[in-house]
Structure formats: structure tokens, C-alpha cells
Amino acid sequence: MDEKLWKIGELAKATGLTVRTLHHYDEIGLLVPSERTQSGHRLYGEADVRRLYEIRALRELGLPLQEIPAALDGDPRKTLEDHLTRVEQDVERARRLQSLLQGILERVDHASGLDYMEAIQAMTLLDKYYTPEQLEKLDTRRQELGDAAQEQYHRDWDGLIATAKANYERGTDPSAPEMQEVARKWRELIDAFTQGDPELLGSLKTMFQEEGPERASQGQIDSGLMEYVGRAISAAG
Amino acid sequence: MDEKLWKIGELAKATGLTVRTLHHYDEIGLLVPSERTQSGHRLYGEADVRRLYEIRALRELGLPLQEIPAALDGDPRKTLEDHLTRVEQDVERARRLQSLLQGILERVDHASGLDYMEAIQAMTLLDKYYTPEQLEKLDTRRQELGDAAQEQYHRDWDGLIATAKANYERGTDPSAPEMQEVARKWRELIDAFTQGDPELLGSLKTMFQEEGPERASQGQIDSGLMEYVGRAISAAG
DNA sequence: CTTGAACCTCACGTAACGTGAGGGCCTACG
DNA sequence: CGTAGGCCCTCACGTTACGTGAGGTTCAAG
User: What is the pLDDT of residues A82-131, one digit of tens each?
Assistant: First the structure.
């Protein structure tokens, strides 16, 4: 019995794919029709059709076309397991990004006078240097502080940085009493926030050290100033 | 005071981007250096540098380059909200795919004699036509049935389809007693599985109707046979 | 003045097709 | 039996965000 031969348009309609897609699969050798008419029209046999359904099924799972031949000819198990791993990573990435974006929008809503770029850069930094658990801790701290206390906290920082900057530009010695005062308050503010949690403190340090120069180039904190404060803190023991 | 001008290599190192990336941003007009040397070397001013940090921040959120100018010049709020929506959809898709893949691997492990392509096609179909809640119901049914009963169930279906097919090919009238018997058992099996849940039954019907012709072309169930059984069931009232 | 590093401009490759352009083939209708 | 509309063919460029050379110029230090 001579099997039914499908023309490309028929097959496209039957599978819900497009003619162009079948052309593409032919081009890359994924599904080459087993026959052609004299004039060059593609003719797909029943084996071709079965293979196409399998290809489509694997594609719907998000498998790259490249990996489909191996899955069809060899052992699909490993291909599927590897793919699952990839998908799990996708989920993780997307979820992390989601909470990051939510955090940014929320923060801009609730913090007065915070502009978007600041919020984005701050959150992105936090996301890069803290684990999700640490972030949760930070969030708890923030909630414990309350809105009013938070703004006070920011004002304290602003004032402290301004004072430090003034001393820095004036050339005050880091071990001078006025800078020792700054160093003490600086540590107090950090302690108040991290509440002595060594991991939080560690992440904070890493962040300052690695991002310092970059933030400097944005004009936010001068890297010389950073170093100057560091010396003052060291001098304070 | 004349601002510091950055050469492309310096800027690349400072931001962790590549020179090629900066070339690209220049090409598409996202970040055009405000100056060039006589010889054509790019020179980035401080405003350029600030803009680049903002671009990088938005890129790290996964924003397409196309949308970044709007976010920088106009209102970032809407851009970010739209992006969040996209990301939420990504999470959904990836999670759905994840559980689909897990289901396939699990099923191949536990069901004897089920090959991968069958499992994939079956699961993909289920995923397409049932809501997650319905799938949970189905899973509950399966667990209630137990392994042995499940295999019995499959054998029942196989036998029933074989009988129906024989009658179909023999040209038996759909209202003949032997086909009425088949129709009765057919409904019994479906009822046993859906346990009278009208939603489950609805999804099952939709699936059969829409996928019937396709499965037919795979040689699994003949579309003529499907219709024939349908007539028998109608005749049975 | 000479290198070696850094810079420049093309320009092709990536994944999986979408979307025409320009031109044969096929079949039903008149 | 001719033709018109539909289906088919083969290029070939566009999409995203760059990576990766190729081939040639410029800069900065010795």
C-alpha cells in the first residue's frame, strides 16, 4: 500500500506550524521531506509526519532545535533532565528579578524624595551583594525602624557624610578629635542597622569596597573621601 | 573647570562592560560620546558616564535597549511596571514548564512501558487543556486508583478501542447491540475517571474534538473511528 | 623613532523563524 | 484548451545584543 504523501501546506495546517517553519526545518536538516515532486515541491511521508509531531512536542517544551535530533535518536532522558535544570534556573532568575522590581517600585512609593535611578541602583546593589535571607533581615530592620525613624536615619547619614567631606577637604587629620567623632558616629549608624550581625556587616563592607570606585565616578561618594573615613575609623581603633 | 574625559577602554573597565558594547550603544544612538579626538577616538564626558551607569542599571533589570531611552528621559514608572508584568509572565511560563517537565520525567519513571514521546505528548496535551486545579483533580483520581488499577484502566481502554475499531471496519451499524455495549462501557470508563465532574468532562471533550484529527494523522486514533464511536454513543441516548 | 597597546571601521555569526520579492506549478472553471 | 487564482519554489533581509575577528590607524612610553 502506498502511503499518503503530504504537501507542505497541508502539513502546516494540520500541525499548526507555518510553511516557513517547515522550510526552516528542512534547511537545517531537522526534517527533510523524504520525497519531492518533479518540479521540486516537497512531499512528506508518514514517517516524516510522525517525526514532525515529535519535533513539535519537544519544541513546545522549549527545547532548542539543535538538541532535538539527539533527543529523538538517542536517549531523551538526559536531554529532558538537562532542560529541566535550565528551566529551573530560568524560574529562579525570573523570580529574583520580579522581587527586585517589586522592591524598587515599592521603595519609590514609600520613600519620599527618592528618585527612580537611585532606587534602581540601590536595589540592584543590594540584590547583588546580599543573599535573599539577608535581604529579609534588612527588610525587617527597616520595618522595625518605621518610616519616620528611617528618614531620620537617612538625614543622619547625609549630615555625617557632609561633615566628613568638609573635614576631608579642609585637610583635617583623620586622627583629629572632630574626625574621631565622625568615625564613632559612622560605626554607630552601621551597628544600629546591622545590629551586630557579622554577615550583614561583611556584605556591607564588600559592597563598599567593590562599588566605592564606581559610585565615586558617579559623583555620589568620592573615593578619596571613602578612604579618608576608613583611615579615621582605623585610627579610632 | 574642564571635566574629566574618558577613553572608551577606561570606561569599559570601570563599568565592567566591553568596548564592543559601548560601540554598539553608540551605533544605535543609545549613548553617543559627546566628543571625539581629531583622529576619531571616542571621548566620554561626565554626563555620558552618568548616563551609562543608568543604562547599565536598567539593563541589569532586563530592560530591552529600545525601552531605555524612554525610561531615562520620560517616566520610568510605567516602563518599570510594564517590565514587571512581563517578568511575572516569564515566571509563570517557566514554572508551568518546570512542572510539566517534572511530570513527564516522573511519569516515565513510574508507568511501565510508557515511552518518552508518548509521555511528552500526553502531558503537553493535558497541560494545554486543563487548568492547574483540574490537573490536580486528575492526579488525585490517579492516586486513588493506584498503580494496578491504573494499568487495568489502560487495558480496558485498549480493549474497548480495539473492539470499536473492529466493528467500525466491519461496518457494524452504530446502533447495533454490540456497539451499544461498547458505547455503554465507553461512557462508564469516562465517568469512572471524571466521577461526574462536569468541568473535567468538558475539557476532555474539547481535547478529543480538537486533537482528534491530529492524533488521527499520527495513526493513534482514526478520526473516522472517533466519529463512529460518537454516533454509537448518541444512539445510546 | 620605534614598538606594543589601544583605538578605529567594517562585517559576519548567533536562534528561530517572519516577511516580502520575484517567479514557476496546478487545477478548476469557462 | 487557455487562464486565473492559489499553492509552491528559492533567495535574502530583519529581528536582539552584542562576540569575534580582519585589517588598518593612533597613542604613549622607551
Answer: 999 999 999 999 999 999 999 888 877 776 555 777 777 777 777 777 77
Q: Look at residue B7 in the predicted model and tell me its pLDDT.
A: 97
- C1' of C9 to CA of B37 (Å): 16
How far away is chain A from the Cα of B130, in angstroms, using its nearest Cα? 16
CA A109 from chain center: how many Å? 22
Phi/psi at A65 (nearest 5 deg)?
-55, -40
How many H-runs (helices) and E-runs (strands) does chain A carry? 10, 3
**Position A16, amino acid:** G
**pLDDT value of position B59:** 95
Q: Are strands A35-36 and B6-7 parallel, antiparallel or unpaired?
A: unpaired
CA distances A194 to A137, A188, A206, B81, B222, Å, are: 9, 10, 14, 31, 69
Report pLDDT digits (tens) over B183-232.
898 888 888 777 777 777 777 777 766 665 555 545 555 556 777 777 88
Residues B97, A105: C-beta atoms closer than 8 Å: no
- Whether residue B113 is predicted with pLDDT greater than 60 in this model: the reply is no
- What span, in angstroms and rounded, lies between the C-alpha atoms of B182 and B174? 10
Strand partners, A43: A7, A35
E runs forming strands in chain B:
6-7, 35-36, 42-44
**Amino acid of residue B195:** Q
A95, A105, A121 ranked by CB distance to B80: nearest = A105
pLDDT digits (tens, 9 = 90+) for B20-42: 999 999 999 999 999 999 999 99
Q: In this structure, what DSSP letter does residue A222 have?
A: -
Distance CA B16, CA A104 (A): 23
The reply to whether B9 has its C-beta less than 7 Å from any atom of strand C is yes
